[in-house]
Amino acid sequence: MAQAKAGDKVNVHYTGRLTDGTVFDSSAGRETLAFELGTGMVIQGFDEGITGMTIGEKKTVHIPAEQAYGPVNADYLAVFPKAELPADIPYEVGMQLNMHQDGSGQVMPVTVVEVTDISITLDANHPLAGKDLIFDIELVAIG
């Protein structure tokens, strides 16, 4: 039976969870995830976990943060004085915002991680940065 290898287009069903069991994403009830192995379309550990699987095979892959979204980068935390931010937004810890980058026109998603009387701290790290991930994977097709 054919084994999935770099360059193959694959279709998988998956459930991603944190080490505490919290599910953060799943293809259950949706179409399979389709991508080309070895091209960087998915996180490194997910890609490597599928390599060598055969159609119909199921497995659980443990991915350390370094092979997922990397460690939390302190440079991606920024403290802003409340006076410099729009006053009409009720800032709360956990709130997701989009911040425009100077000059580039690109939008960067950020999370409010601290609110004080005078400042707001925003985190531009990926929400899964610094976390080890576990994926239950089923290889549905190689094409």
How would you explain this protein's 3D organization?
- The structure is a single chain.
- The protein is mainly beta and 143 residues long.
- It is built from one helix and nine strands, in the order βββαββββββ.
- Strands 1, 2, 3, 4 and 9 form a five-stranded antiparallel β-sheet that branches.
- It is an enzyme of class 5 (isomerase).
Rg over CA atoms, rounded to whole Å, is 19 Å
Largest sheet: 5 strands, antiparallel
Question: How much β-strand is present in the residues?
Answer: 35-45%
The number of E-state strands comes to 9
Shape: elongated
Are there runs of 5+ residues with pLDDT below 50, and where? none
Q: Please tell me the overall pLDDT.
A: 94
Number of helices: 1
SSE succession:
EEEHEEEEEE
Catalytic activity: [protein]-peptidylproline (omega=180) = [protein]-peptidylproline (omega=0)
Family: Belongs to the FKBP-type PPIase family.
Organism: Arcicella aquatica
Protein name: Peptidyl-prolyl cis-trans isomerase
Question: What does this entry show, briefly?
Answer:
The protein is mostly beta strands and 143 residues long. It has one helix spanning 44-50, and strands at residues 9-18, 23-26, 33-36, 58-63, 77-81, 96-100, 107-115, 119-123, 133-142.
